[in-house]
Amino acid sequence: MRIRNVTRWVSIVVLSAAVSLPVGADEQASEKKGDKKASGQPSDAEMMAMMMEMTKPGENHKLLAHMVGNWSLKVKMWNNGDTNTAPMESSASATVKEIMGGKFFTSDVNGKMQMPGADGKMTDMDFKGMGVDGYDNARKKFVSSWIDSMGTGILTSEGDYDAATKTFTFHAEVAYMPGMTVKVRQVVKIVDNDHHTFEWFEDRGGSGEVKTLQIDYTRKK
Description:
By secondary structure, the chain is an alpha+beta fold.
């Protein structure tokens, strides 16, 4: 994250310098007289004002603020992608916090999952996950990243919000193993202030898209 932020600000400085470079003598003279640039490009002050405006959280960030709080999670998994069969069920808890003045929201998830042990039998294993969600004003997309104790990759997703259905839809690609990349769709539906659902769909090629995960969130009182 630190490297990404430094890179971003270096890019801003370079961009500011680029748009402020004089094209020729006529333009230099025009700037000295206080006229607008012949190229129609924004001035340094205008460019800086635009960039500062892009750093402010807005209405889309407020949509994510619904998630702030402590939550109980009921987890259902269908590895075979058949939701007509009995799912593997587990429970977890999540704490979501606002950071950086409402620009981003972090989530910490703790629970247990049924996984095969060394002897091949299903056993409870501790599960931990961490996420960061936000809205990218420049790209006009909701953005999300996720890591957990069950893998070594960082899942990055981007998506949109449908106000009519109060639903976020994210898309991403997951590499489960070398040479095996799967397209996924994640759907978060806001039921009310104290409830929302998360669904995970995988594109399995010829067999189409299947639902393999559902998490029901209930706000802790």
